[in-house]
Amino acid sequence: MRCGKWLAVLVCVALFITGCKKHHQETPTMTTKGTFADDLAFLRQHTDVIVLADGDARIAVVPQYQGRIMTSSAAGDAGLSFGWVNRELIASGKLQEHINVFGGEDRFWLGPEGGQFSIFFKKDVPFDMDHWFTPAPIDTEPFELVSSTADSAEFKKAMTVENYSGMKFDLQVDRVIRLLKQADAVAALGVTPPADLKMVAFSSVNKITNTGEEPWTKQGGLLSIWILGMFNPSDATTIVVPFNTGAEADLGPIVNDAYFGKVPPERLVVKPEQGVLYFSGDGKYRSKIGLPPQRAKPVCGSYDADNKVLTIVVYTKPQGATDYVNSMWELQDEPFAGDVVNSYNDGPDTPGGKPLGPFYELETSSPAAVLAPGESLSHTHTTIHLMGHEADLDAVAKAVLGATTAEITAALPK
C-alpha cells in the first residue's frame, strides 16, 4: 500500500512538471515594458510601422505620424526604448483639438510658433493656449511613403499653411530617414566612441520647397524647418547645451528662458567659464530655453545617469546665418531674431493640472527660408544614443558636449 501511495504521488509530480513544461513551451516570450519590442508591439496595434535595423541598432518610423521616428534601441528588441511614446493618446484613437502629442524622437514641424508670422495662431487672436492650434499637415495628416530600404525611408507631403498676417505658403516637404552606419555616426560625433558602448544613430534630412507662385519674403513672413525629439524624463536626466562664450555686448544673451516664465535657478544652471548650460529633464516643471545663432553650437544633448544613456543631437547650422524665426508668443519687434536650439521640459500647465506627457525635448531649427518659387531649403537633424559604463561615456561627453558625466550629474541641485 505504501509503495502504491508513493508511486501515485510520483506520477502526479511527473504529470505536473510535464504540464508546466508544456505550458512554458506554448506561452510566447513576454516583453518587458520599456523595451523597444514592447513599444513596437504597441504601435503596431494602432498603425503601420517601418523598422530600420542594422545589427542591434534599430528605429521605428510611422508614416501616419508625418514620417516621424517614434523610438529606437541600441541593444536589439530587448534594449531600452529611447523615445517617448504617448500610449494614452494613441490607444484612445481620438484626435485632440490643439495638438496631438503622439511622441517620437524626431518629428517634422514648421516655425514660427508665435508672433505676427506664426502659423499656430489665426489673425488677431490672443497668444494663449485657447487660441493655439497645430496646423493639420504637421499634426494629423500622414506623409506619403515614397520608398524604403533596410536602413532608410523617404517621405513627401504637399501642404498649404497660413500665418497670423494672412500670408499663405504652398510647399512640398521631402523627408529622408536614415539609420546610420558606425562610420557615419563617428563622423557626426567627431570622436570615436569606446568599443564597449552600445550605440544607435539616425538622421532626418528635411527639405522644404516653395511650390507657390509668390516668393517668400520677410515682409510677409517666413517659415523654418523645426525638428523636435521627445524623450523619457527622469529625476536623473540633465539636458546639456554647450555655447559660444563671449561678452553679451558682442554675442547677446546666452539663453532665452522666458518662453513660459523665467526658469527657476535650481532648474537651469549656466556656466560661462565652461561654456555649458544645464537644464532639468525631469518632466515635472513646464519650461523652455533657447539659444540664438551667435551662441548656439551645432550640438546639444542629455544624460540619463540612472540608465547610463548619453544622448547627442547634431544638426546643420549654416555658417553666417543669422535670421531665425522668432517663436515667442507675442507681437514681436524682431521676428527674425529667434533661437536655433531649444529644449523643453514638460510639466503641468496649471498647479495640480495634467502635463502633456511628461517628456523632455531636444529641438533644432533651420534658418528662416527666403525662397523664390521652386527654391528649396534643407535641414539635417541627427540623434545618437550611447549606452554603457560611465567611464566609457565620459570621453565622448567631454569631447562633444564639453562636460564629463560627473559634471553633468552634479550640475543641478538635487
DSSP helical segment count: 7
Beta fraction:
25-35%
Please give the largest β-sheet.
10 strands, antiparallel
Order of helices and strands: HHEEEHEEEEHEEEHEEEEEEEEHH
Report the uncertain regions. 1-31
Walkthrough of the structure:
The structure is a single chain. 17% of the residues lie in helices and 31% in strands. By secondary structure, the protein is α+β, with helices and mostly antiparallel strands. It has one domain: Beta-galactosidase, Chain A, domain 5 (Distorted Sandwich). Strands 5-6-7-8-18-15-14-10-12-11 form a ten-stranded antiparallel beta sheet. A five-stranded antiparallel beta sheet has the order 4-9-17-16-13, with no helix packed on it. Strands 1-2-3 form a three-stranded antiparallel beta sheet, covered by helices on one side. Strand 5 (144-148) and strand 6 form a beta hairpin. It is globular. The chain starts with a helix and ends with a helix. Mean pLDDT is 92; it is low at 1-31.
